[in-house]
């Protein structure tokens, strides 16, 4: 008997958590947290098929302007995000864009705006299993640059703004005290979300590309949120970030040899 090697045991088989095999997913994968958001994103794709739905991981695969794309929900938080990214990578995924929601931390960011993460403060435990604490969690430069370019272009003359910078990836939604939030504000971070640093860390370790774009659901500095009510601005933001991410994938795919 020998101690299990998970990397060896998970190759060439149906993936345990996401329930898929090689060929089920594309090279490009969008990663919302909420399984129900996969249905929204799938509307933007052609010839789309529901491939699997196991646990919190729901996957569609289809095409955007001829480029094969998948969307897989990660669930909430870094542990399930890392599992999804690892298993998707095992069956051929190479470029990941997280489509999320977040809380803004600065006065100039409004609900419904888009925030693109360039790097993430690792206020979570998952990445500690992969790298030392002092190794930063950084987004892929090429994919992130494409997201910024497309988002700025699409927002021109519209009623939302595009922001980018360092995010805080937190482990505990309800553990964030006013004192903790003020600390993040004072560090001049753009927003709080719950998955980016783990995604960036997994991608770094595996030599893949990871990026994150979030629609703003609340502004913690200004005390603004729609908790308990329908947040139409967030719903619109989810649609906007989907359009941005898919177009960024299309442009990256056709221009990637130029980088």
From TrEMBL:
Catalytic activity, as annotated: uridine + phosphate = alpha-D-ribose 1-phosphate + uracil
Gene Ontology MF: a single term: uridine phosphorylase activity
PANTHER family on file: FI09636P-RELATED, URIDINE PHOSPHORYLASE
Domain of life: Bacteria
GO cellular component assignments: cytosol
UniProt record similarity statement: Belongs to the PNP/UDP phosphorylase family.
Region forming the signal peptide: none
EC number assigned by the record: 2.4.2.3
Top class in the EC scheme: transferase
Gene Ontology BP, a term: nucleoside catabolic process
Gene3D superfamilies associated with the record: Nucleoside phosphorylase domain
Alphabetically ordered keywords of this record: Glycosyltransferase, Transferase
All residue ranges annotated as the Nucleoside phosphorylase domain in the record: 28-222
Transmembrane segments: none
Protein name as catalogued: Uridine phosphorylase
């Amino acid at each position: 008997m020998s101690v299990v090697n998970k990397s060896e045991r998970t190759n060439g088989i149906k993936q345990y958590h996401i329930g898929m095999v090689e060929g089920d997913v594309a090279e490009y994968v969008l990663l919302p947290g909420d399984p129900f958001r996969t249905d929204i994103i799938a509307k933007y794709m052609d010839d789309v098929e529901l491939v699997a739905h196991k646990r919190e991981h729901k996957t569609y695969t289809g095409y955007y302007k001829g480029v094969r794309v998948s969307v897989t929900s990660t669930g909430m938080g870094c542990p399930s995000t890392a599992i999804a990214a690892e298993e998707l990578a095992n069956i051929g995924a190479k470029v990941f864009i997280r489509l999320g929601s977040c809380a803004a931390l600065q006065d100039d960011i409004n609900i419904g705006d888009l925030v693109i993460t360039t790097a993430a403060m690792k206020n979570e435990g998952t990445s500690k299993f992969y790298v030392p604490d002092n190794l930063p969690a950084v987004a892929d430069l090429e994919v992130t640059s494409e997201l910024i370019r497309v988002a700025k272009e699409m927002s021109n003359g519209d009623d939302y703004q595009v922001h980018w910078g360092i995010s805080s990836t937190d482990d505990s939604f309800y553990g964030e005290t006013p004192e903790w939030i003020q600390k993040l504000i004072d560090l001049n971070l753009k927003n709080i979300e719950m998955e980016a640093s783990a995604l960036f860390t997994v991608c770094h370790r595996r030599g893949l590309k990871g990026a994150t774009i979030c629609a703003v659901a609340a502004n913690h500095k200004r005390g603004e949120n729609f908790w308990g009510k329908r947040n139409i601005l967030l719903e619109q933001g989810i649609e906007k970030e989907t359009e941005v991410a898919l177009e960024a994938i299309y442009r990256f795919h056709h221009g990637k040899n130029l980088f």
